[in-house]
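can u pls check wat happens w/ adenosine-5'-triphosphate
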Amino acid sequence: AASPTRSYAITLLPGDGIGPEVISVAKNVLLLAGAIEGIEFNFHEMPVGGAALDLTGVPLPGETLSAAQQSDAVLLGAIGGYKWDNNEKHLKPETGLLQLREGLKVFANLRPATVLPQLVDASTLKKEVAEGVDLMVVRELTGGIYFGKPRGFSTNQNGEEIGLNTEVYSISEIDRIARVAFETARKRRGKLCSVDKANVLEASMLWRKRVMAIALEYPDVELTHMYVDNAAMQLVRNPKQFDTIVTNNIFGDILSDEASMITGSIGMLPSASLGEKAWTGPGLFEPIHGSAPDIAGQDKANPLATVLSAAMLLKYGLGEADAAERIEAAVLHTLDRGFRTGDIYSDGNKLVGCKEMGEEVLKAVDLNV
Ligand code: ATP
Ligand code: MG
């Protein structure tokens, strides 16, 4: 094991709905894996979302944001719920999440889509297509058509109303997301596919040119290019061909949802959002699922997406790959032993709640499997 002196400040943002239940499990898993690997964590738990609204009147209190900014990494549960859906007096809880992403300047969103052998039947694809899928979508998060100007409503020459948005990427924006993608591919199987529409769009032509330029810094990573329409098709035809995919904001929005549906297990999928200091934090790590108000407080939530987000926090946020792999192995071992929450349950397995699933993962972390 590595030297026993590493210490990190982690901001925990449990949030709403099932957030507190799944964060509690992930915190215990981090503590145990850290203790075994010689890592000390200082956790600061802060309110965000609806919980913060009730407490302070705003969804992202200044103290929460500054704690997050000053920490080494941020682990978020989930935000929102019925209770605040028709909120006229205040900001919506979800505003807190947007402000948090803005405040941490996270420009790279990483979403793995892995079909675990134990859960291959959950996939929306045929078994032989789904088996062994293990890919990562790296989505640019703060540029492109979602933010480009000019935008808005106006009138064209014929006096007809138009809606207008603009796809804009600068060289520096492309270069930094490309570097995150190459670094990510390097930590995986060393293959990167850049997805664009360079046959039609100038922003994509520049994207392709810069990705090729950055590739010179990463001779060990194999780079390919694909048009987005083809990529959308290839993802369902033969997703195994992909290792790491890098793409712009809008294509990434669509392709990462498509990729997550391949796995069919929303309770299993983690994510990472990395900022300027991408490799030292504070990155933002969270499950891709929402607050699941329909099952909140009933000990039914699957905590594994959050546990796997904690593993991403270790690997991509802190550079602690050994501890991350220990947690991933523990999750696989727990599934191997047949433990399932309701969302991934099938005949012949053992149905457990959120807490019990957490206890089983802890046992597996301890076993060093
Ligand atoms: P968002 O908040 O992103 O808009 P949403 O409201 O569309 O999300 P979720 O809150 O993710 O959706 O819930 C969708 C469905 O998936 C619900 O039925 C919920 O119970 C279920 N679900 C989501 N996360 C989990 C989990 N971790 N374990 C079990 N079931 C889950
Ligand atoms: Mg929701």
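Residues 80, 290-291 surround magnesium ion (ligand 2) (CB under 6 Å).
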